[in-house]
């Protein structure tokens, strides 16, 4: 059986694929389509079934999702979606002209990006364990991004590649 994270990734890929063909659908609709493809009545049923079962008496933490402060939606999209190839999981605004709160994901890594000044401070560093860091570096170099060509540095604890977003946040990818 697939995990809930895999189902969410499928929905994000479906949404992105349809957008490339000029068919925009909300992420919630993509989740519903994926749940039907997996044989569930709706997304709520799929999510409840796919979540790992934990006894109500056990303490259980899920993996954290860092929130990074952004100041310009277009620059954030250029960096996170185009350069780093994340997919949008959801976008939220309380009203059309109010700040954006957006969830993005790639290969199991989830981040939230926020224009809300109270959500996070710029200048954060994320430590991101990963595999195949050289392939990732080569992929990024192939995009010819005008604001960075990250390189891998060998440290005692592993191979490290730092990428800086336009808002002062640092993503430190590391392969042990």
Automatic annotation (TrEMBL):
<feature type="domain" description="Glyoxalase-related protein">
    <location>
        <begin position="3"/>
        <end position="51"/>
    </location>
</feature>
<dbReference type="InterPro" id="IPR045517">
    <property type="entry name" value="Glyoxalase_8"/>
</dbReference>
<protein>
    <recommendedName>
        <fullName>Glyoxalase-related protein domain-containing protein</fullName>
    </recommendedName>
</protein>
<keyword id="KW-0046">Antibiotic resistance</keyword>
<dbReference type="Pfam" id="PF19581">
    <property type="entry name" value="Glyoxalase_7"/>
</dbReference>
<dbReference type="Pfam" id="PF20066">
    <property type="entry name" value="Glyoxalase_8"/>
</dbReference>
<dbReference type="InterPro" id="IPR029068">
    <property type="entry name" value="Glyas_Bleomycin-R_OHBP_Dase"/>
</dbReference>
<dbReference type="GO" id="GO:0046677">
    <property type="term" value="P:response to antibiotic"/>
</dbReference>
<dbReference type="InterPro" id="IPR000335">
    <property type="entry name" value="Bleomycin-R"/>
</dbReference>
